[in-house]
Amino acid sequence: MVLKNARKESSREKICIFVAVKLIKAVKYLASADFRLRFKQRVWRVMSNSAVGRYLLHQGFSVPAANLERDVFGMHFTSPIGLAAGFDRNGEMIDAMAAAGFGFVEIGSITPKPQQSKEKGDNLLMLKDDRAIIYRSDIVSAGVERVIENVKRRKSRVVVGCNIAKNTKTACEDAYGDYLRLFRPLYQYVDYYTVNICCNTTAEPYIPSTKEEVMAILAPLFDFRRGQNQYRPILLKISPDLTDEQIDMMTDIMLDTPLDGIVACGGTVGRHGLVESASQMHSIGRTHGAMCGRPLKRRAVEVVQRIYSRSKGTYPIIGCGGISTAEDAMQMLQAGATLVQIGSEFIYGGGVSLRNMQLGLDELLAKAETEANPISESDTVSKN
Predict the structure, then answer these.
(1) CATH code at 71?
(2) Residue 25 domain-assigned?
(3) How do residues 120-162 score in pLDDT, each as one tens digit?
(4) 161 strand-pairing partners
């Protein structure tokens, strides 16, 4: 009898411990950056699927302004500010982003097969003081078939780009096959492609850095496009961690091949420019993953300037990395970018950050136009 009671007590203790562990894990998750990001994404998905939600987004955040409009790649952009890849990974929020005022939306990164993160603990670290985020997981993707279903349901006519990448398990020498397996079925559903070769969010990053490696990926895409009735621009997204010589090589690839442009830049494995406390810096320095956000801006601007200078401004460049304000966006455009993208700042500030950036950039562009083409006093008199 005593033994039986002891076993019951032991069973109760095990159940209590099990429940306690589960509760602790649930509380930790609710307090994690992962949960906060997923909650924000869920809200935007709900708004995207609702006519009322899209109307509210348009009324609350959209900024129609002629100074922001431009034509690039033979397509019309209502604004040079677009959503960077990483937030709408599976093309589920396109209509919401269009309603909020983005000039274009880049979905992804997507992989041919569905895959989830295998990392233990938080998949991202949010560094609020730096307005930065460290992504430390495999690319999370629902796979190409799900993405096609989502994109086919979109109602808006906003320009949509697709950031494509390889599955983590695919060997580096076979990566070209993954990119082609994405490019072919998606071809008729999106407006341009970004070939992501800066997959550096894991402990074993994939960053092709030689001409042979890059061309092994791009050549099959060029070949497939030649046989199509419609033309889809192909861009290359590069890492800010490349040397200046490697950036020149990527630019030369753009000049010498049918590549249509470059997205500069993705996240960095470096931790330069952070203003976190010493203890946080020590912890952050040891973790792997790609850092995006404000600390990346200086290097991103340098890379854009270098590409623009070497290509003599003859090819479009999408500037991405650390853009947090209208002034940042203007600086990127003045460095040579044709369009810009925001990601981390949108995660932190949402539609408010987007609206403020659009309003500020509209004023800055109008001011620059006035300074470039001043109206003389005689012109004013003649008009009167």
Answers:
(1) 3.20.20.70
(2) no
(3) 556 788 888 889 988 887 788 999 999 999 999 999 999 999 9
(4) 106, 192
Residue 339, φ and ψ in degrees, nearest 5: -135, 165
User: Is residue 381 included in any domain, yes or no?
Assistant: no
Domain with 333, as residue range(s), is: 32-374
pLDDT digits (tens, 9 = 90+) for 159-177: 999 999 999 888 888 999 9
Among the residues of 192-262, which ranges form H helices?
Answer: 211-226, 244-256
Query: Of 103, 107, 104, which is closest to residue 92 (Cα–Cα)?
Result: 107
Give the whole-angstrom CA distance, residue 48 versus residue 64.
20
What are the strands of the beta sheet with 290-293, ordered from one edge?
Answer: 124-127, 132-135, 290-293
Tell whether 72 is covered by a domain. Answer: yes
Whose tokens are 């982003």? That residue is 97
Which residue from 154, 150, 73, 140 is spatially nearest to 108, judged by alpha carbons? 140
Residue 14 falls inside a structural domain:
no
Specify the number of domains making up the chain: 1
User: What Å distances lie between residue 282 and 121, 125, 285, 287, 293, CA to CA?
Assistant: 18, 14, 5, 9, 19
Length of the chain equals 384
Q: What CA–CA distance (Å, rounded) separates 177 from 162?
A: 17
Specify whether the CB–CB gap between 113 and 167 falls below 8 A.
yes
Locate 136 and state its tokens. Answer: 């430390």
**Burial classification of residue 6, based on how many CB atoms lie within 10 Å of its CB (0-12 exposed, 13-18 middle, 19 or more buried):** exposed
Report the run of H or E that residue 232 belongs to, with start and end. none
Residue 367 phi, psi dihedral angles, 5° rounding = -65, -45
DSSP one-letter code for 381:
H
